[in-house]
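Q: Predict the bound structure with pyridoxal-5'-phosphate.
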Amino acid sequence: MAGARTIHVPDPSWGNHGHIFRSAGLEVQNYAYLDHRTGTTLDFDGMRAALSGLPRGSVVLLHACAHNPTGIDPSGEQWQELAELFAGRGLVALFDSAYQGYASGDLDADAASVRAFEAAGVLPVACQSYAKSLGLYGERIGAVNFVCASREEAEAVLSTVKQTIVRPAYSSPPLHGARLAAEALAPSTASVSAPAGGSTPLSPRRQVLGDAALFAQWRGELRGMANRVHRMRVLLADALRAEGAPSPDGGDWGHVVDQIGMFAYTGLSASHVDSLRERHHVYLTRDGRMSMAAMKPADIEYVARAVRSVLAE
Ligand SMILES: Cc1ncc(COP(=O)(O)O)c(C=O)c1O
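A: Predicted complex:
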């Protein structure tokens, strides 16, 4: 990666990627990702062709899971093919992992992309955010992980990153968030009654990631959150079909269910989004991205009706 002047990001990508990389002095180029013919599916052939044409050593940003904004991820087989392509062509994989555990509800399933690359002999770099998965948006919780070929390489990477990025940029990381993540926000001992059977009450300071019981509880909560979002997808697709709203991609709204993560890439145009906002007070980003995490069962029918109405305009 040393000396890279360009980063390749999917078209489209999280809106902030361009700003971040340009402000770090990199040129940002897009590679094919969304199939613009449907507006709701992956253009895997285009993606493969674009990446196959890059020079060795090119740095490519990938979304580890729950691609933002589209909610469209490569399948397991496609990740495998990409991992082999990266290994064969000597491409550098920079993963943005902002939704591990939040996408499928399973921390391991959501890490499968990164692990497939590692297994294929690529040494991925993974930028990990815990903002969503730990519900700590404002605390700046994250890490950049470099998989290295040897201990010597790891020591050299750590020292370079410290000298060239960490020290000039922020020097020491914000600790408060990391402590919240590591130490459970458990109720005080006084307010926790010992469960029947007389086991010891919860300690107020135990590590979420390091304590088996709290880790299991957190995994369960992630599953609950991901399942709820998936249920909203199913309900919305059913309601849109029941309303007789024509899906913008000519399909049957199955993409709303198949996509993953917080967002549905509906296929609605900017003018549909404007009408939804102006006439119905339903708010999406102008690329047609709808937050499924913000949806409640009680909203579904209203939203489906509003969508049908703007599509008929
Ligand atoms: C792909 C992606 N990367 C990074 C982030 C931000 O992570 P953080 O809040 O830790 O900066 C987000 C969302 O906010 C995102 O969607």
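A: The beta strands are 6-11, 27-32, 34-35, 41-42, 59-63, 92-97, 125-129, 142-146, 263-265, 289-291.
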